[in-house]
């Protein structure tokens, strides 16, 4: 799921970052550059958690295999026909386009939300790595329902990992981002090896044996909700909604020679969000057959989901290394990106300082297992909050002139705060979050309605606001 260092990997290869101007033709890249990035960056620490979590919500074989296939296809189509198209036409970063539409002051709110959510995601990846580091110490692993840390050893390991990751992110990002790209094939290989070993341990001899691993599904584990086909498909579609319909990857595809480069996201979706998720789910399926897991279930408790031990039991020390690397290569650039978001709010602070601040928040979050154990819900919330902002960009690009709305209004009117954007975003969030809570509707189900609502309200409020402003200047 993670591609948070793609933008920096593309940008740092250039002497000019083109943050406030279109990328020139001389700096454009072919589709091959994006293929490797997406293929590697979506097989990361999050995948070790997400795969097993699907089993805890009682998915069936059809729900998992077909739901993931279609959901990831919809995500690829969004990247190709929305994100890549607008990116190639304008060749501007998301942040600069938002500034042109929303104004500098309003973008601060987006950066704050973005930075905090990045920190929590990085914290969950520190948690993932900690489950591997704790194996030699015979550390008690956090349970699926744990919110608080379960012991001193856990806290010490998380603090140590978080400190190291934060310092590396603050001091040596260029080196680390390149190292992450070299490590990606190792992580992908580890997922593949885990899947093959798990299939052997499950004694899968045919396609029907494979299908019967999940069969018709089961009751969700204690504390979890039941996932149907629609849950799996919609969730996997919007797992990266902040990046595609949320337009964050405008910053990536602005370097593409052609909008057809958007198809390369399929490599990430079907290596990371398909193969890797299923391979990780197979590891957990093996564990669920053990006496230890059966004891938990017989006592009415959910067996723990700890990526470190799962991978270690499948492929030994290589599994420990792979989980540590997967968590680290996700947490490190995520902390870096959170730091950049915070720096936009407090520009006088050094990059080192804001990155350490982000790392500190992420480390504190990593101490609490709930962020990782509730990753399905957190990712849904993350997309729900940030994706509607992308609707502002899409509707401004496609529909503003048709409905007599001035595109890039904040830039043209020289305002720092475009109120229609805040009204559209705030009302859409409040309304559909209320609907989700009040009627117990899965949050990913209301992400698209919230996105559409935000875009429509943006046009409606903008037209009235701009007309009022024009009358005032007559």
TrEMBL record:
Keywords: Membrane, Transmembrane, Transmembrane helix. It comes from Abyssalbus ytuae. The chain crosses the membrane at residues 53-82, 107-133, 153-170, 182-202, 227-246, 267-290, 310-331, 352-372, 378-399, 419-435, 441-461. One of its GO terms (molecular function) is cytosine transmembrane transporter activity. This is Purine-cytosine permease. GO terms for cellular component: plasma membrane.
């Amino acid at each position: 799921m993670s591609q948070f260092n793609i933008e920096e990997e593309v940008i740092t290869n250039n002497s000019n970052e083109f943050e406030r101007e279109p990328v020139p033709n001389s700096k454009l890249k072919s589709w091959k550059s994006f293929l490797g990035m997406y293929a590697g960056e979506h097989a990361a620490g999050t995948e070790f958690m997400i795969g097993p979590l699907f089993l805890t919500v009682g998915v069936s074989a059809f729900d998992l295999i077909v739901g993931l296939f279609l959901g990831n296809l919809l995500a690829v189509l969004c990247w190709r026909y929305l994100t890549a198209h607008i990116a190639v036409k304008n060749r501007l970063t998301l942040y600069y386009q938002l500034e042109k539409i929303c104004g500098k002051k309003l973008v601060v709110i987006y950066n704050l939300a973005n930075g905090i959510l990045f920190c929590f995601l990085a914290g969950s990846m520190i948690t993932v790595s900690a489950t591997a580091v704790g194996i030699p110490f015979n550390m008690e692993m956090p349970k699926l329902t744990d919110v608080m840390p379960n012991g001193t050893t856990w806290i010490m390991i998380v603090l140590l990992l978080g400190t190291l990751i934060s310092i590396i992110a603050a001091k040596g990002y260029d080196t680390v981002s390149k190292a992450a790209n070299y490590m990606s094939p190792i992580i992908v290989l580890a997922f593949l090896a885990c899947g093959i070993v798990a299939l052997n341990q499950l004694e899968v001899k045919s396609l029907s044996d494979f299908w019967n691993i999940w069969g018709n599904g089961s009751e969700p584990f204690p504390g979890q909700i039941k996932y149907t086909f629609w849950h799996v498909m919609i969730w996997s579609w919007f797992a990266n909604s902040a990046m595609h319909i949320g337009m964050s990857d405008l910053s990536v595809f602005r370097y593409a020679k052609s909008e057809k480069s958007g198809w390369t996201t399929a490599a990430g979706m079907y290596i990371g969000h398909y193969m890797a998720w299923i391979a990780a789910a197979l590891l957990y399926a093996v564990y669920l057959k053990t006496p230890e897991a059966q004891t938990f279930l017989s006592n009415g408790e959910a067996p723990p989901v700890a990526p470190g031990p799962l991978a270690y039991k499948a492929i030994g020390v290589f599994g420990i290394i792979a989980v540590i690397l997967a968590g680290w290569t996700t947490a490190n650039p995520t902390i870096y990106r959170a730091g950049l978001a915070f720096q936009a709010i407090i520009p006088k602070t050094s990059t080192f300082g804001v990155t350490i601040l982000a790392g500190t928040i992420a480390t504190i979050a990593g101490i609490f297992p709930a962020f990782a154990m509730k990753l399905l819900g957190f990712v849904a919330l993350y997309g729900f909050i940030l994706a509607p902002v992308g609707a502002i960009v899409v509707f401004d690009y496609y529909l503003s002139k048709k409905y007599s709305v001035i595109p890039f209004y904040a830039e043209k009117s020289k305002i720092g705060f475009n109120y229609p954007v805040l009204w559209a975003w705030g009302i859409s969030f409040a309304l559909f979050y209320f609907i989700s809570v009040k009627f117990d509707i899965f949050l990913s189900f209301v992400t698209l309605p919230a996105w559409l609502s935000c875009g429509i309200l943006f046009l409606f409020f903008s037209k009235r606001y701009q007309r009022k402003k024009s009358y005032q200047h007559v």
